[in-house]
Design goal:
Blueprint (H helix, E strand, L loop, with lengths): L8 E4 L69 E9 H11 L4 H10 L4 H5 L7 E2 L18 E10 L5 H10 L7 E9 H13 L8 H14 L5 H5 L4 E4 L7 E4 L2 E4 L1 H15 L6 E3 L2 E3 L1 H10 L2 H4 L7 H13 L4 E9 L1 H9 L17
Parallel strand pairs: 6-8
Antiparallel strand pairs: 1-5, 2-3, 2-4, 4-11, 5-11, 7-8, 9-10
Helix pairs in contact: 1-2, 5-11, 9-11
């Protein structure tokens, strides 16, 4: 699952120039969206103040600039639809190849580095090879040539899943990015929803302590954030002490007295997600209802009516599990993944190091003085 990519096409996109139903009615407290006011207000000469709503996303993209940097701000996007990656690259290694092995002059080598546009195969490869490396500490030398940190540059990669909740925000963000110096590279990749789902599952699984029960709650928050991205689930979960299967709701969810009630179909989906995250830890997978083997989980979902509700008809547990994954992940349905590659640190380092002669690497990976 990790690192394997079977996307069918990759293309570079030119940037334009700058010119709930929350369940049935009941006594529990219902969480609903706050309606946005339209029209009215003061005339053009009277400034209008916009209230800050901490519990809801504004859906507005601010200028893509931070003091001293050109970092991309993805705070307006649904958190489960974006991912940030970093790749460290040793410029001394690159210059060594260009000058010593390819015979280029130092000036030409610097120009080639400034023109460099990494491919998605390089950025997404699970095997990191020279000149890329994993930075353990900002003060560590290059593991290949031993060059000091001043010769190291960072590529920041932001990946955004295509969809109705992100496409408009992404277009506004791309238009707001600086256009000078080709600091940002925009890439697109076509894949499947199932591939994106399993990559998301791998991302949320990293760092989880499966021996501590709190991970069940964290996975619930992540999945609900992916399922209903317009809700601020981080704020919601600050009020929630327990998660339960509702006997009244037919769909959706509601919160009452610190308890999150989920409709049976949504609760059963969470059981499957918990199983997927924890099935390799011990025999079976741990869920909100305890530990299940695959056979036990399929029997539970069949008796609860979930398999019938989503159209899974296979009787064999393994076959039913495969059909269920197709439904939950979206299967082979096509989707686009959009990448924004921030090259500003790379371009800045190339400009700073132009007056320096690159260090010579030693056989042992340490500089020769």
């Amino acid at each position: 699952m990790a690192g394997r990519r079977s996307y069918r096409s990759v293309k570079t996109v030119e940037r334009p120039s700058r010119k709930i139903v929350k369940g049935a009615v009941g006594s529990a407290t219902r969480l609903t969206a706050v309606p946005r006011k339209k029209g009215g207000g003061a005339g053009p000469s009277t400034p209008r103040s916009v209230p800050n709503k901490a519990s809801r996303r504004t859906g507005r993209v601010q200028k893509a600039s931070v003091a001293g940097t050109n970092r991309v701000d993805l705070s307006a996007f649904p958190s489960e639809a974006v991912r940030k990656l970093d790749r460290s690259i040793c410029l001394a290694c690159v210059l060594d190849v260009f000058t010593r092995h390819m015979g280029l002059s130092l000036n030409t080598a610097h120009l080639e580095i400034k023109r460099y546009k990494p491919s998605l195969a390089e950025l997404n490869s699970p095997a990191i090879t020279r000149p890329y490396f994993t930075m353990q500490s900002p003060q560590d030398p290059c593991p290949y040539c031993g060059s000091p940190p001043k010769w190291h540059a960072r590529l920041a990669i932001y990946r955004i899943e295509g969809g109705r909740t992100t496409d408009t925000l992404r277009r506004e963000l791309v238009k707001a990015l600086p256009t000078s110096g080709n600091q940002f590279l925009i890439l697109e990749e076509r894949g499947t929803r199932q591939e994106a789902f399993f990559e998301w599952l791998e991302k949320i699984s990293k760092g989880l302590d499966l021996e501590a029960p709190q991970w069940l709650r964290e996975v619930c928050r992540h999945y609900l954030s992916r399922k209903e991205p317009k809700e601020d689930w981080q704020a919601q979960f600050e009020q929630i002490q327990s998660i339960r299967r509702s006997r009244r709701l037919e769909r959706g969810w509601e919160v009452g007295k610190g308890r999150l009630f989920l409709a049976p179909p949504l609760f059963d989906e969470l059981l499957l997600v918990h199983y997927l995250v924890s099935r390799s830890q011990k025999a079976g997978g741990l869920t909100l209802e305890g530990r299940y083997t695959l056979r036990e989980l399929m029997a539970r979902l069949r008796s609860g009516g979930y398999l019938r509700a989503v159209g899974v008809i296979a009787q064999n547990p393994s076959d039913a599990f495969e059909e269920l994954l197709q439904y939950l992940s979206g299967g082979e349905a096509s989707m686009k993944l959009h990448y924004i590659v921030d090259r500003s640190d790379l371009l800045g380092k190339v400009g700073q190091l132009k007056a320096f002669k690159p260090p010579r690497p030693s056989v042992r990976g340490h500089l020769i003085s």
